[in-house]
Amino acid sequence: MSSGASASALQRLVEQLKLEAGVERIKVSQAAAELQQYCVQNACKDALLVGIPAGSNPFREPRSCALL
């Protein structure tokens, strides 16, 4: 690898590290508490917890035709 390519790669790496250093961080305990609060607040909208109404379920078994 030439020195120009190496310098370019290092420059990209430095820029990436600067971007990552500027990201605001929070403690894991705070993130976990916020995630738990979000889950509790939105539990009533979760189809895995409350189920899907039969009329709006796109995965229900198709009905057979009674005329045949």
From TrEMBL:
Gene3D superfamilies: Transducin (heterotrimeric G protein), gamma chain. PROSITE patterns: G_PROTEIN_GAMMA (PS50058). CDD domains: GGL (cd00068). Residues 3-68 form the G protein gamma domain. GO terms for molecular function: G-protein beta-subunit binding. Keywords: Acetylation, Cell membrane, Lipoprotein, Membrane, Methylation, Prenylation, Transducer. It comes from the Eukaryota. It is a lipid-anchor. Its main location: membrane. The keyword Lipoprotein applies. SMART domains: G_gamma (SM01224), GGL (SM00224). GO terms for cellular component: heterotrimeric G-protein complex. GO terms for biological process: G protein-coupled receptor signaling pathway. The keyword Amino-acid biosynthesis does not apply. It is found in: Cell membrane. Belongs to the G protein gamma family. Guanine nucleotide-binding proteins (G proteins) are involved as a modulator or transducer in various transmembrane signaling systems. The beta and gamma chains are required for the GTPase activity, for replacement of GDP by GTP, and for G protein-effector interaction. Interacts with beta-1 and beta-2, but not with beta-3. G proteins are composed of 3 units, alpha, beta and gamma. G proteins are composed of 3 units; alpha, beta and gamma. This is Guanine nucleotide-binding protein subunit gamma. It comes from Propithecus coquereli.
